[in-house]
Amino acid sequence: METPKTGAPTVVVAGAGLAGFCAAIAARDAGARVILLEKGGPEDVGGNAAFSAGLFLFPYAGASDLLSITGDFEEGLEADSIEAPAYTQAEYGAELMSMSNGEADADLVDALAARSLDTMRWLTTKGMNFTFGRSLGPEVRDGVLHVPPGQCLQTTGNGLSRGYEMFAPLIEYAETHGIEVRWSTPLTQIHRTDGHITSVVAGGHKIRCDALVVATGGFQADAELRREHLGPAMAEAVLRGTRHSTGDGILAALTAGADRSGAWGRCHSAAVDVTMPSPRRSDDDPPAPLHGFWLGVLVNRTGQRFVDEGPGPWVKHYSKMGKAILGQPGSDAYEVFDQRAASRVANEFAGAAVPLTADTLEDLAHQMGVPVAEFVATIERFNGACRPSPVIAEAATTDGVEPPKSRWAAPIDEPPFVAYHARPGVTFTFGGVRIDADGHALDHTRTPVPGLYAAGEATGGLFYGDYPGGAALMRAAVFGRTAGASAAAEAAHCPPDAPQTH
Ligand SMILES: Cc1cc2nc3c(=O)[nH]c(=O)nc-3n(C[C@H](O)[C@H](O)[C@H](O)COP(=O)(O)OP(=O)(O)OC[C@H]3O[C@@H](n4cnc5c(N)ncnc54)[C@H](O)[C@@H]3O)c2cc1C
């Protein structure tokens, strides 16, 4: 069965995640007929974004920019006024560059920095809702909400994995604006005629098109590709998100002539709780990411600390913890807290994860299965390096212990003690299709492949060693939107009766 060619130029978008929905909506708004192909069923909508914390990082000039996106505040953050120092495009770009160790493509960095704020406003016109989230560090003092620079806004919903809720308005927009969504229809092949993309094969059928946007996510869900590119240890990592991002869309684009780019040997990883399985459906909870590490200490199987647990705000550093755990014996670790932090960790960061609890450090060590004497000595050494304090203050550092804890250092001495068992989880891969700032897929000579676009995790070139939390959803939205608009513009210039030879 072949899809008939209609009068309107046709843009096919593969992948119903955030990048795919943004591409489909932008192409439709630009007048194209749009077919959105999704490998999974409706229960899989949203790809990785459905499991995400819904954090979006973008530059802003001050409180009025933030308030132009939302006036919604999580409990405890309502205030008479807001103090929000600017987080400029230059700072955003510099942060992306420094977290990629200078390897990121400067054109992509500049485009993301320049288009993010406008794209946040655009998302709200498509029905998405944002809020000032509590877990990221804003605080009300003397009736003023203080928002630290480089702050994310968060999609509305409950808990950390609230991204699922962003898709109801996007689906409604697609349905009411004539975007044809085809579930259980994976893209498998891409065909070119005289160099230009003319059709794809999806779900066993050929579909004609004038332009294609590949938004099929990374390759993190394929254990063999993980082993090949990231090494044997990451092949065993717990998958944090969608099981459908197996890299097939990326490989189809490469076969069709696109070049690869980015850090194929690196990925985003976060420590996750071992008691929770990888998600199956989009409304499942992903394994809890244990972002509360900064409120306690991490110890390995030998009972030793091995990393600075307080390098800075968790949202900028959590992926380092997954990588640090990966390097430990057995590739696992325990996150240990006392009563100063236990309830905050349980309420804000641990989701449905089940901790071990004990009245003494010795009993906790027994339950963890780590050498008792070493573990107790580690905690005593750490406690001796902290200043006594009933609270966990950001400015508090350790003195005379290795590794240091640079912030939020407080003794672990108020029982009962709790420990969460953590393993590295894989969030998404960093290598993919090479694109330019218009979302056009480039070949190995850096020339656009006519009619071929890509966006989101399916692309490389932006994230390398690490990335600032909130920039991945922002990338999906900005480049999805850009690719969809560019694809529609190119499709509009295709001759209506171009030969269809495949
Ligand atoms: C647990 C978790 C928490 C996160 N939290 C945040 C956060 O708070 N902030 C942030 O910035 N980032 C976060 N991220 C990362 C962010 O969610 C992703 O980078 C982003 O959603 C990627 O969007 P995407 O559209 O490119 O890919 P995806 O969302 O993965 O979408 C890809 C879609 O393509 C489909 N697909 C795959 N292959 C095919 C095919 N062959 N044909 C058709 N369809 C196909 C998949 O089923 C999927 O629906 C998080 C990720 C995870 C896993």
How is this structure best described in words?
The protein has 502 residues and is an alpha/beta fold. It folds into 2 domains: 270 residues, FAD/NAD(P)-binding domain (3-Layer(bba) Sandwich), CATH 3.50.50; 154 residues, Flavocytochrome C3, Chain A, domain 1. It contains 13 helices and 21 strands. The longest helix is centred in the C-terminal third of the chain and has 22 residues. The structure holds flavin-adenine dinucleotide. The site of flavin-adenine dinucleotide has 43 residues, from α1, α8, β19 and α13. Flavin-adenine dinucleotide binds next to α1, α8, β19 and α13. Keywords: FAD, Flavoprotein, Oxidoreductase. InterPro entries: FAD-dep_OxRdtase_2_FAD-bd (IPR003953), FAD-oxidoreductase_2 (IPR050315), FAD/NAD-bd_sf (IPR036188), Succ_DH/fumarate_Rdtase_cat_sf (IPR027477). Its cofactor is FAD.
Name its key features.
single chain; alpha/beta; FAD/NAD(P)-binding domain; six-stranded mixed β-sheet; disordered C terminus; binds flavin-adenine dinucleotide; FAD
Describe what is shown at a glance:
It is built from 13 helices and 21 strands. It is α/β, with parallel strands linked by helices and 502 residues long.
